[in-house]
Amino acid sequence: MLKILILPGDGIGVEVTNVSLYVLKALGEKLNIKFEFESALFGGSSIDAYGVPVTVEVLKKAKSSDAVLLGAVGGPKWDNLDYEIRPEKGLLTLRKELEAFANLRPAVVYPSLQSASTLKSEIVEGVDIMVVRELTGGIYFGTPRGITKLSNGEERGVNTLSYTTTEIERVSRVAFQIARKRRKKVTSVDKANVLDVMELWRRTVTRIGKEEFPDVELEHLYVDNAAMQLIRRPRSFDVILADNMFGDILSDEAAQLTGSLGMLPSASLGNGRAIYEPIHGSAPDIAGQDIANPIASILSSAMMLKYSFNMDNAADEIDKAVRKVLEKGYRTGDIYEKGTTKVGCQEMGRLILEEIRKQ
Ligand code: IPM
Ligand code: MN
């Protein structure tokens, strides 16, 4: 029995997770996989019910589950709260508590969606990138942090960017291992020309590469250059390894290569524990209208089958079905183009399920 904790969260997180759950259940029946699902409030909806974005009980449940499937958190309603009790803080706490230190964000350009990108078709054609972002360290968690009043009446804001060797080593290994199963190239992103911590980053990644993964090509880019090369020669990237903040930024940039944030899943892996979630946010402006794209969430459950349960075939079934539905011209609003058929969130899920049943 595979225990999965479902945290739909806020906004469209709820709709897309429902659809993805429905696909997962049906796939489970088809392939005779025994899932046990449990749902809980998370993010803004947890703040409304319990005053905190994640309860101790939910953290416990997450730790005793085999995987967590998350929707999205946040919304204008909670934007003025203290950082400590904002929906986003719930997400950071969950990542930290589960030690989900390696965040995998694939950015794949589907042939049928090539023209949906804001970049020229010939530039994005064939792009298949895996961003591996460090997720439980760096400036997101470093101390000291905070805003203090100075004696002259001014305020001073501080955050700390720090990494230990161990933190860099473990996420590097994940990146190299993934590259080994792909095109055997890692591009490590840093700012070693300015920051001491990034000098340690570069040195450590270089050592792990040399000692443990000599068969994988390693390229180093400064983050500013990486941001540029990503839109200049996106096809030349295979695995991008970056720290928490650079990875946050570059993964959005990589996502835009594909045309829609609504398509991209993610996996956050730790020591045997994992969180799966779409890259997109809670999109409060379109929430509750059944128009959100459920594909990122559906592909996140495919990543769960692959990375948590080693069920590559089951994951492929989902991948293939998604490609099929796109090839047939069905689109949610975010990826709609003239000449295609616009469908809603639930209908997109139903179409994908129909393909899975046919396979
Ligand atoms: C992401 C998001 C989060 C992050 C926010 C919501 C805390 O942007 O998952 O990329 O910065 O990590
Ligand atoms: Mn982000």
CATH fold-level assignment of the largest domain: Isopropylmalate Dehydrogenase
- Total DSSP helices: 12
Q: Given this structure, which CATH class of the largest domain is correct?
A: Alpha Beta
Placed side by side, the strands forming the largest sheet appear as 2-1-3-12-11-4-5-10-8-9
How many domains make up the 3D coordinates?
Answer: 2
Tell me the overall shape. globular
Low-confidence stretches: none
Major sheet: size, sense and barrel closure?
A: 10 strands, mixed
Tally of strands: 14
Mean pLDDT: 96
Percent in strands: 15-25%
Distance between the termini: 25 Å
Hetero groups in this structure are: 3-isopropylmalic acid, manganese (II) ion
How many whole angstroms does the radius of gyration measure?
20 Å
How are the secondary structure elements laid out?
Layout: E1 2-9, H1 12-31, E2 35-39, H2 44-50, H3 56-63, E3 67-72, H4 87-97, E4 102-108, H5 121-124, E5 128-134, E6 142-149, E7 155-160, H6 165-180, E8 185-190, H7 196-212, E9 217-222, H8 223-232, E10 239-242, H9 244-257, E11 265-269, E12 274-278, H10 295-307, H11 312-327, E13 330-331, E14 341-342, H12 345-358
Parallel strand pairs: 1-2, 1-3, 3-12, 5-10, 8-9, 8-10, 13-14
Antiparallel strand pairs: 4-5, 4-11, 6-7, 11-12
Bound molecules: 3-isopropylmalic acid (IPM) and manganese (II) ion (MN).
Manganese (II) ion binds next to α9.
